[in-house]
């Protein structure tokens, strides 16, 4: 069988194509958008599924990592005052990256729910592994998943909280880049973006140690600040308890 001849490439041109192709494969790989479970929390995930099954009428859902999870501890008082009677469901799990949250959303975390509002904060645990673009794509994947699964709900997307005591730390720079990008997700009519980072810092941009003793997780006053900042939008969507 005769095949038509193909254009001949010089070795250097071929090498460039191979190099570019490899780069495409490499840079096209984004772990932040690949749903992934964590063996360490499967029991916790299953317990949350039981909460979801028992509370199908919940109009407000919180989705995130340890900062969200800590509404159950450091933010307990404000949760009890503002959200418990709605009722609200806390789907935060400590240590979760965007891909872990995405996996949970695809495996029952929103099953049977029709919330009016979903509060989302994700990405801080990706900071040391992924670049800003990858993290933003991970957050976007979460938002898209929720929009699809909650067609009548709105999303209040919270900017990643500042971390590190140094205002010029690489983590701070990356977080600003991520937040700047994901703010654009509010172009979707059912999404609003809220960045309260400046409310959690001193005037010079340094971390308030009385608010963030570990430069990452806020104490109870931080949850009061967070709740106050969300109140106008949540009241509009779901009303007051």
TrEMBL record:
<protein>
    <submittedName>
        <fullName>GDSL family lipase</fullName>
    </submittedName>
</protein>
<feature type="domain" description="SGNH hydrolase-type esterase">
    <location>
        <begin position="62"/>
        <end position="223"/>
    </location>
</feature>
<dbReference type="Pfam" id="PF13472">
    <property type="entry name" value="Lipase_GDSL_2"/>
</dbReference>
<dbReference type="GO" id="GO:0004622">
    <property type="term" value="F:phosphatidylcholine lysophospholipase activity"/>
</dbReference>
<dbReference type="InterPro" id="IPR051532">
    <property type="entry name" value="Ester_Hydrolysis_Enzymes"/>
</dbReference>
<dbReference type="InterPro" id="IPR036514">
    <property type="entry name" value="SGNH_hydro_sf"/>
</dbReference>
<dbReference type="InterPro" id="IPR013830">
    <property type="entry name" value="SGNH_hydro"/>
</dbReference>
């Amino acid at each position: 069988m005769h095949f038509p001849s193909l254009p001949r490439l010089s070795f250097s041109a071929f090498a460039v194509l191979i190099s570019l192709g490899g780069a495409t494969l490499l840079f096209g790989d984004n772990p932040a958008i690949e749903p992934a479970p964590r063996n360490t929390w499967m029991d916790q995930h299953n317990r949350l599924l039981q909460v979801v099954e028992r509370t199908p009428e919940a109009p407000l859902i919180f989705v995130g990592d340890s900062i969200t999870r800590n509404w159950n501890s450091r933010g307990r008082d404000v949760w009890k005052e503002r959200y418990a009677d709605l009722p609200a469901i806390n789907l935060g799990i400590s240590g979760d990256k965007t891909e872990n949250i995405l996996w949970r959303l695809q495996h029952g975390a929103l099953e049977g729910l029709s919330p009016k509002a979903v509060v989302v904060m994700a990405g801080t645990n990706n900071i040391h592994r992924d670049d800003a673009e990858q993290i933003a794509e991970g957050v976007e994947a979460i938002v898209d998943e929720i929009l699809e699964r909650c067609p009548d709900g709105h999303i209040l997307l919270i900017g990643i909280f500042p971390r590190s005591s140094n205002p010029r730390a690489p983590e701070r720079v990356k977080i600003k880049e991520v937040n700047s990008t994901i703010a654009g997700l509010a172009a979707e009519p059912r999404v609003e973006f809220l960045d309260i980072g400046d409310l959690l810092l001193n005037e010079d941009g340094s971390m308030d140690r009385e608010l963030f003793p570990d430069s990452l997780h806020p104490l109870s006053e931080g949850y009061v600040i967070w709740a106050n900042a969300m109140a106008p939008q949540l009241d509009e969507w779901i009303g007051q308890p």
